[in-house]
């Protein structure tokens, strides 16, 4: 289809060649984007983290110089976390390691350091020594619950953990038959005495009161000296980009509580932004490791899928899931990735390159080409004449200005912008939720979601109520149930055709791609519009669809520039691009993303570091 369209319009495009050459003026002309200062946080007793205070290399240097005791840092972090608990300002963490246990960990690390032979640099032996981190509560840590953002999930019955007696609304064996889909195998008959399916699908983690193992990416960080602080809030089942679909409550933007913090890795981003951790783990299927970075002035590194193990991370779309890293700068993200990359044969999608890809010392090319969507630069000259992308930020002119300022930034460090049509990429993106791959979510969570169907009553998303499932989430999973294998193959063929006819040729035209992280940002009121409606206890699915319409559409808008990434096996890093004013004076961060083709992670990270240095030079 794309080849035919290109042929039809080729003569037209050639006639406009002189005009197209003039398009470069958008990039060479100075964009008037006056610097806007970080407004800081509204949260009592909290502060926005600085690199001097919480950056990994900054902390390691202080530890080397004995100018900072990690116990002092840990106590300060817990003081602020407990203050947030007391004031009930922001449900950033779902659970945490106790202060005493964290201080015991500090004592253990000090003993390890003292026991090293003279002359051995402890940071070589333990490269994350004393560095606090947080994990998204979808990743298993032995002895801690993994709630996946839904308060009753750990009580969902399965073969290992039968129903909890007396739990209000808990399913029983008579009505549910222990049908935890994370344990379901269609090719293994259930045991006749228990109706349990004994084998998990490809080592899927098991819902239960507490995890009995620790995910590899967590264990590697611990082995190298990191200090776990806790587990972070998220859009339940990692389904959403808004950060509001958690039964523990929405995570609010740390700079303005009227706005969302982005999801699904909402708490992971907020914890780093506030300096409760130097880095954190998120996940990214549709943008969950990048959207919250853009909304919190952070770096969000999404590696090529398979470079970081996803074993013991509850899956979303397992065939394209990626674990991600939030940090205060690109160097820290790269540094953490180097510590936790490892081929894992318990992860069916792990890549052997995880053991051989070495980014330390890699530099970005002095000269390079980077893609810029024609729809954004000159929408009226787009092959597809599609103004939708510009419509999405029509009320956020500061976002548009900051994006083109980022284009200029890349030009100053050796980049040449290349215009390309974004629609084929967006067509791939639509298949993530609009195609059959979403059915993979049902395998793990589907029966639980259907058994906890939301009513038509106001959605409070409070763990003490029965309204545990966000209506948007429910509808996504219910609709996923009806996907057929024929649809899955049709989607696969369509993606491969677009890759062959368009995507692969675009990657030959440019080395990197620069996109906004999101077109804009929304308020909590905007994404939860309709949730206050009371439709009674027996609302129909059609009524729930209407109730969730705003959340569904705005969430979709946020994924405009992120949803294609893993379906196309790209690597990406979300990076800050300054602040802008929106809605009559609200100051909030804006971010952009650098993309590279499969396994070009080192080159993307190296260019992102150069970009970051140029942004810092501007701001200074």
Kindly list the characteristics that best describe this protein.
620 residues, alpha/beta, 11-stranded mixed β-sheet
Average pLDDT rating: 87
* Order of neighbouring strands in the sheet with most strands: 1-3-2-4-6-5-10-11-9-7-8
Largest sheet: 11 strands, mixed
| Low-pLDDT runs | 3-30, 161-190, 195-202
Rg, nearest Å: 24 Å
Strand content: 5-15%
Secondary structural class:
alpha/beta
Task: Name the helicity range.
Answer: 25-40%
Q: Number of DSSP strands? A: 11
General form: globular
Query: How far is the N terminus from the C terminus?
Result: 49 Å
Compute the number of helices. Answer: 24
Structure report:
The chain is an alpha/beta fold. The protein has 24 helices and eleven strands. The protein has an eleven-stranded mixed sheet with strand order 1-3-2-4-6-5-10-11-9-7-8, with helices on both faces. α18 packs across α19. The protein is globular, with a radius of gyration of 24 Å. The protein starts with a helix and ends with a helix. 52% of the residues are buried. Residues 3-30, 161-190 and 195-202 have low confidence and may be disordered.
Strand-helix topology:
Blueprint: H1 2-15, H2 17-22, H3 25-28, H4 51-54, H5 56-64, H6 70-87, E1 93-96, H7 99-114, H8 122-125, E2 132-136, H9 173-176, H10 216-223, E3 227-232, H11 266-273, E4 279-284, H12 291-295, E5 299-302, E6 322-327, H13 330-340, E7 368-373, H14 374-377, H15 388-392, H16 397-412, E8 415-420, H17 423-434, H18 439-451, H19 471-480, H20 485-509, E9 512-516, H21 524-527, H22 541-547, H23 549-558, E10 571-582, E11 586-596, H24 601-619
Parallel strand pairs: 2-3, 2-4, 7-8, 7-9
Antiparallel strand pairs: 1-3, 4-6, 5-6, 5-10, 9-11, 10-11
Helix pairs in contact: 6-7, 17-20, 18-19
């Amino acid at each position: 289809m794309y080849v035919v369209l290109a042929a039809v319009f080729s003569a037209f495009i050639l006639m406009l060649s002189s005009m197209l050459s003039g398009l470069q003026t958008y990039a060479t002309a100075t964009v008037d984007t006056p610097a806007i200062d970080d407004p800081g946080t509204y949260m009592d007793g909290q502060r926005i983290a600085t690199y001097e205070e919480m950056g990994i290399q900054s902390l390691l240097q202080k530890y080397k110089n004995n100018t900072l005791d990690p116990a002092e840092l840990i106590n300060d972090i817990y003081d602020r976390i407990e203050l947030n608990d007391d004031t009930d300002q922001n449900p950033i963490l779902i659970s945490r390691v106790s202060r005493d246990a964290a201080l015991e960990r500090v004592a253990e690390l000090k003993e390890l350091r003292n026991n090293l032979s003279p002359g051995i640099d402890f940071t070589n032996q333990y490269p994350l020594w004393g560095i606090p981190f947080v994990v998204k509560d979808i990743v298993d840590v032995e002895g801690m619950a993994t709630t996946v953002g839904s308060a009753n999930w750990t009580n969902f019955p399965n073969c290992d953990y039968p129903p909890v007696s007396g739990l209000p609304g808990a399913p029983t064996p008579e009505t549910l038959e222990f049908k935890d889909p994370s344990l379901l195998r269609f090719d293994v008959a259930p045991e006749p005495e228990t109706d349990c399916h004994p084998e998990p699908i490809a080592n899927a983690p098991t819902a239960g009161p507490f995890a009995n193992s620790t995910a590899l990416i967590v264990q590697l960080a611990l082995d190298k000296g990191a200090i776990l602080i806790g587990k972070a809030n998220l859009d339940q089942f990692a389904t959403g980009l808004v950060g509001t679909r958690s039964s523990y409550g929405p995570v609010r933007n740390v700079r303005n509580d009227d706005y969302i913090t982005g999801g699904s890795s909402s708490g992971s981003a907020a914890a780093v932004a506030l300096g409760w951790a130097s880095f954190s783990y998120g996940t990214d299927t549709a943008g969950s490791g990048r959207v919250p970075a853009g909304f919190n002035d952070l770096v969000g590194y999404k590696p090529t899928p398979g470079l970081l193990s996803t074993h013991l991370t509850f899956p979303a779309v397992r065939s394209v899931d990626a674990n991600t890293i939030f940090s205060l700068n690109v160097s820290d993200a790269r540094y953490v990735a180097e510590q936790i990359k490892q081929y894992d044969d318990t992860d069916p999608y792990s890549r052997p390159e995880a053991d051989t890809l070495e980014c330390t010392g890699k530099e970005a090319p002095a000269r390079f080409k980077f893609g810029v969507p024609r729809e954004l630069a000159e929408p009226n000259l787009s092959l597809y004449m599609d103004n939708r992308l510009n419509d999405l930020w029509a009320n956020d002119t500061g976002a548009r200005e900051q994006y083109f300022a980022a284009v200029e930034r890349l030009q100053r460090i050796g980049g040449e912008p290349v215009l390309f049509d974004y629609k084929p990429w967006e067509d791939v993106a639509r298949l993530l939720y609009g195609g059959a791959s979403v059915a993979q979510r049902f395998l793990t969570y589907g029966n639980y979601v259907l058994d906890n169907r939301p009513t038509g009553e106001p959605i409070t998303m409070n763990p003490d109520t029965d309204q545990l499932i966000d209506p948007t989430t429910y509808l996504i999973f219910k609709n996923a149930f009806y996907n057929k294998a024929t649809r899955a193959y049709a989607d696969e063929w369509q993606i491969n055709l677009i890759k062959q006819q368009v995507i692969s040729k675009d990657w030959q035209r440019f080395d990197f791609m620069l996109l906004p992280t999101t077109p804009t940002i929304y308020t909590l009121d905007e994404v939860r519009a309709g949730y206050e409606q009371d439709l009674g206890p027996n609302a129909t699915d059609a009524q729930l669809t209407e109730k969730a319409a705003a959340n569904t559409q705005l969430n979709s808008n946020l994924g405009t520039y992120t949803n294609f990434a893993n379906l196309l096996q790209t690597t990406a890093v979300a990076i800050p691009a300054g602040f802008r004013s929106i809605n009559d004076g609200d100051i909030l961060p804006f971010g952009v993303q650098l993309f590279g083709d499969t396994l070009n992670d080192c080159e993307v990270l190296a260019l992102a570091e150069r970009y970051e240095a140029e942004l810092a030079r501007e701001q200074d």
